[in-house]
Write a structure and sequence with these properties.
The protein is an all-alpha fold and about 300 residues long. It has one domain: Orthogonal Bundle (Farnesyl Diphosphate Synthase). The chain has 14 helices and two strands, in the order H-H-H-H-E-E-H-H-H-H-H-H-H-H-H-H. The protein has a two-stranded antiparallel sheet with strand order 1-2. A hairpin with a 2-residue loop joins strand 1 and strand 2. The longest helix has 28 residues. The radius of gyration is 18 Å and the shape is globular. The model has no long low-confidence stretch (mean pLDDT about 90).
Length: about 300
């Protein structure tokens, strides 16, 4: 199976699970749930849940049939990612009007409606992660919750977003730029890989390697995002191009130029691949995902 076929097959699995696990837009909260579902089903690539599934496959054979707890975790990761996008697009943050080629959540449901949709997606993710009667022990699920919550909060994504916003228009060196990127984007990607490894019953040595892999592809992902914001078109990206430069954000192209930025993205991918040297062919899709991240066009 090539990477495009794999991504499409896993995306369909994740979408079906999301539709099953998310509440229906009916009753007194119909408009609120509609706002949650609007952004969740707006055409995302599902990179984080797919990385979670691929990491589990790298240490255990599933034959395309994933246990309930793994699908719940994958869906929780996508709920968290979608919440972050809804809030990122708000007027007080990046003030974007397009996301994935569609009006952003606050343009459709209003600012308050968008904030609450994001709040519910974040909270609902942890409801999914903590459900009883799953195939894993409470200790294992607590470990997953700890990994993900740390990646989302002040030490991770939210902290990175704070640094990103507060460094707009300022001269930023390489150390701070890497700090912003590793938190804002890299932390949740790394946690997605770690969660899949833990649920796949990886060894401590394998988890260490998967963490190295996740850290590097998280960095590569954000570097490529920086490049695409400069080189991509609105049609390709599904959102405004050139917005980073317009807001004078700290980015790799702004600090290093395009050619050196491309080189740094490839270096991160090479380091991610090196981290998987101790894995067998079951990690093939993790390797292909790393290459996909550095060559994607949106």
């Amino acid at each position: 199976m090539d990477i495009k076929q794999y991504l499409e097959a896993r995306r369909k699995q994740v979408d079906a699970a999301l539709d099953l696990f998310l509440p229906e837009a009916k009753g007194v909260l119909a408009e609120h749930i509609k706002a949650m579902r609007y952004s969740l089903f707006a055409g995302g690539k599902r990179v984080r849940p797919i990385l979670c599934l691929a990491a589990a496959e790298a240490v255990q054979d599933y034959d395309n049939e994933f246990p309930h707890v793994l699908l719940l975790t994958a869906c929780a990761l996508e709920c968290i990612h979608t919440y972050s996008l809804i809030h990122d697009d708000l007027p007080a943050m990046d003030d974007d009007h397009l996301r994935r080629g569609k009006p952003t959540n606050h343009m459709v449901f209003g600012e308050a409606g968008a904030i609450l949709a994001g709040d519910s997606l974040l909270t609902y993710a942890f409801e999914l992660l903590s459900r009883e009667g799953l195939e894993t022990s409470a200790t294992e699920r607590l470990r997953i919750i700890s990994l993900i919550s740390k990646a989302v909060g002040p030490e991770g994504m939210v902290g990175g977003q704070f640094l990103d916003l507060t460094h707009e228009g300022k001269e930023v060196g390489y150390d701070m730029l890497r700090e912003i990127h590793s938190r804002k984007t890299g932390a949740l990607i790394t946690a997605s890989v770690q969660a899949g490894g833990v649920l796949g019953k990886c060894t401590a040595e394998q988890l260490h390697a998967l963490t190295r892999y996740g850290t590097q592809i998280g960095l590569a992902f954000q570097i490529v995002d920086d490049l695409l914001n400069v080189e991509g078109t609105q049609e390709q990206l599904g959102k405004a191009a050139g917005s980073d430069a317009a807001r004078n954000k700290a980015t790799y192209p702004a600090l290093f130029g395009l050619d050196k930025t491309r080189k740094k993205a490839q270096e991160a991918v090479d380091e991610a691949l090196a981290a998987l040297e101790g894995f067998d062919e079951r990690a093939t899709m993790l390797r292909k995902l790393a290459q996909y991240i550095v060559t994607r066009k949106r």
